[in-house]
Amino acid sequence: MTPKIRAALTLPDRAEILERERRFSRPAGIAAILGSVLTIAGLFIRGLALEGDSTSELLLDAATGDSDGQLMLGAVVSGLGLILLAIPLTFLFVATRDRSERVRGAF
Hints:
This protein is an all-alpha fold. The protein contains 5 helices and no strands. The chain has a domain at 29-102. The protein is 85% helix and 0% strand. Helix 2 packs antiparallel against helix 4. The longest helix is centred in the N-terminal third of the chain and has 36 residues, at 14-49.
């Protein structure tokens, strides 16, 4: 194994790991909560835009264009929520990678 690869596979200093986790835990938590709320809100917005009892009625209503703006708003809000959920997932992956040699070696 070359020195460059060996250096990439060694774990960082524990104090450095804890400091980084302390610094990013609050923004990751806020992004998780906000992402969840936005994703659910987008589903409600889209649900309010569609009226009807059966799936075919919902699809026909969406195809007529009566509530295109509301459907688009619901999709955008849900999309923003899903993008925000990537932040805590990345935080958790980095924390796991820094603590485990098996995870670090896999990537």
